[in-house]
Amino acid sequence: MKIFVKKDNNLKPIGEGRIYSKSQLRLNEFTNGKVSLTLNPNGQDVRASSIQTSAQNMLNQVPQATAVTVQSDDIDGVSTPTFSASDPRNDTVQNIAAKNANGATIQQAAKNGGTINITKDDSQQNGLGESRIIEMRKNSIPFTKKELSNFLSTL
Known about the structure:
By secondary structure, the chain is of the alpha/beta class. Helix content is 26%, strand content 22%.
């Protein structure tokens, strides 16, 4: 999809890309080049029996990914507890290795609420090489938390 910017009362193309809704944006904090993918970015329910295969496919496609994330309340057919926003259990993260992420394990974890991380089985290739990280930092645009908050609030 082409992306345009309005400048001098004209639309000027700035490139190709995807358009995301505000609900699809999510800031994942990570260190050492580790990346967490979202299994269901559109927030639709997923079947517990298919999570293992889907997560493994995503982890194989993105070499620097270390985990695939799914919200407990997005697991189809599982009644998850509802905690108030201030309850710390609302933000709990449960890590399950991809080889152990079968339907029964996922359903049991979903009953506890929070977020489920399906983690990569082999820990040899977690993250990018140090030289690649340095190169990315040189080419990146630094921003503060306040600048990011202001940007996201305008969407």
